[in-house]
Amino acid sequence: MFAICYGYDLLEPFVDTQTMQIHHDKHHAAYVTNLNSALEKHPEIEGKSLEALLMDLNAVPAEFRTAVRNHGGGTWNHDLFWLVMAPKAGGEPQGGLATAISIAFGDYSSFKAEFEKAAMGRFGSGWAWLVKKGSGLAVDSTANQDNPLSDGLIPLLALDVWEHAYYLKYQNRRAEYVGNWWNVVNWTEVSHRYSAK
Q1: 21-40, pLDDT tens digit by residue?
Q2: What φ, ψ does residue 129 adopt, rounded to 5°?
Q3: What is the CATH number of domain 95-196?
Q4: Which CATH code is given to the segment(s) 17-83?
Q5: Which of 159, 151, 152 is nearest to 121 (CA)?
Q6: Which contacts qualify for 11-20: CB closer than 8 Å, 24 or more apart?
Q7: Could you report how far apart the first and last alpha carbons of the chain are, in Å?
Q8: Which of 12, 22, 29, 48 is found 20 to 30 A from 170 (Cα to Cα)?
Q9: What's the rounded Cα separation, in Å, for the pair 97 and 92?
Q10: Cis status of the peptide bond prior to 13, with omega within 30 of 0
Q11: What letter does residue 115 receive in the DSSP assignment?
């Protein structure tokens, strides 16, 4: 499981300490535990990375596929989620990522509006994503713990819109959570991921 490299309290006031602790130590940990339990029963896929498994779910044995999709997706999605947040972050992307966002969406404000629409439009639990799609960028949304890797896309930025990600602080005010979340986006990490893929 990815260890958060900043204190649980350091995303305050935008993401509260108690939510961070429960989200990481309970929810994320449960995905990791359940995935590892399933992996132990399927030694034939030993040595494959989680990313490789998610990229080709059809190659995963049928009796194990749901566990990889749900628990593997939950593990991978949260690993990225913690990375793309940081204390004293926010602002706007710079460099090549900023240029790519302008090409794909017109400008940063238009990208933000489309991303927020994906986050708010996700019925029930799921995720909003900025992804690399071919040579450009796109906004995506997935249900539950599904991952854009399974659709041939490369995730760069992830926002968890499951209620456990925000309900203690924001209750049913998902829009407020989504709006405040931009204050902790780690654009340095997102830019690094964009340049590396």
Answers
A1: 999 999 999 999 999 888 88
A2: -135, 145
A3: 3.55.40.20
A4: 1.10.287.990
A5: 159
A6: 11/85, 11/87, 11/184, 14/180, 14/181, 14/183, 14/184, 15/85, 15/166, 15/169, 15/180, 15/181, 15/184, 16/168, 16/169, 18/168, 19/164, 19/165, 19/166, 19/167, 19/168, 19/169
A7: 22
A8: 29
A9: 10
A10: yes
A11: H
> Can you give the pLDDT at residue 54?
96
Domain-by-domain residue ranges, the chain?
17-83, 95-196
pLDDT for 197? 64
The sign of the dihedral angle between the CA atoms of 32, 46, 147, 7 is positive
pLDDT in tens, 55-64: 999 988 888 8
pTM, entire model:
0.94
pLDDT at 2: 60
